[in-house]
Amino acid sequence: EAGVVQSPRYKIIEKKQPVAFWCNPISGHNTLYWYRQNLGQGPELLIRYENEEAVDDSQLPKDRFSAERLKGVDSTLKIQPAELGDSAVYLCASSLRGQGRDEQFFGPGTRLTVL
Amino acid sequence: KNEVEQSPQNLTAQEGEFITINCSYSVGISALHWLQQHPGGGIVSLFMLSSGKKKHGRLIATINIQEKHSSLHITASHPRDSAVYICAVSFNNDMRFGAGTRLTVKP
User: Which residues on adjacent β-strands are paired with residue A55?
Assistant: First the structure.
């Protein structure tokens, strides 16, 4: 079974440019998470989807970040415009919620560098 | 204050040593997770536990719910165990992560 797929793995852009990350969760997983991980820190939740609905986006900087999961499967996270402080690893995870099955499976991440 | 605190922040060991990483949390949880992150970013789940103890190969994870504390042990450590080990807790349909412990095992 394929794991969580993310692309690209690495991205280098100049500040003020837009960037997008893509995530395909494990087949059948209804919950999808986007995290941001700064160097030397643990992941921080940006947004959580239950199917196609964003149920927790309280930590998403909505002035420049947006996300979508239109068909409740794959998802895109966008930053426009990017700032120097956005340099981080962006992790996608998925899980099959319900009946206590909240174990999350993580993708390899996208390492973003903003110059 | 972070809901999840790990110690030590960095740990260097010689091959073969017994290693312990500690995690304390301050909220009521439904489960605690130990994760491994290698350079490059990918995270692998090692354990998910809500009570007692679990063992997988050379890895052992324990949790004390009353004391809100968990430990990850590695027996007979090997250089390939070098990674960042992250403690995370599930609560209120949410998940919180510790900052991680960077482990380096030298041959």
Answer: none
Q: List CB contacts of A30: < 8 A, sequence separation 6 or more.
A: A50, A51, A72, A96, A97, A98
Residues A15-32: tens digit of each pLDDT: 999 999 999 999 999 999
For residue B88, the chain A residue with the least C-alpha distance is: A42
Residues of chain B neighbouring A97 (CB-CB closer than 8 A): 93
How sure is the predictor about A98, in pLDDT bands with cuts at 50, 70 and 90?
Answer: low
∠ CA A5-A35-B70 to the nearest 5 degrees? 105
Nearest to B99 among A41, A91, A104 (CB): A41
Amino acid letter for position A57? D
Q: Does A104 touch chain B (CB under 8 A)?
A: yes
Residue B72 CB contacts under 8 Å (≥ 6 apart), including other chains: B20, B21, B23, B34, B46, B47, B59, B60, B61, B85, B87
pLDDT of residue B66: 94
Please indicate whether, in this complex, the C-beta atoms of B35 and A102 are within 8 angstroms of each other: no
Q: Could you tell me if A109 and B41 are in contact, meaning their C-beta atoms sit under 8 angstroms apart? A: yes
Q: How far is CA B106 from the centre of its chain?
A: 19
Q: Residue B32 has what DSSP assignment?
A: E
Q: Please determine, for residue A99, whether its predicted confidence score (pLDDT) is greater than 70.
A: no
Encode pLDDT of B3-37 as tens digits.
899 999 999 999 999 999 999 999 888 899 999 99
Residue of A23, A37, A101, A111 to mutate for B, most B C-beta atoms under 10 A = A37
Look-up of token digits 């609560």: B91
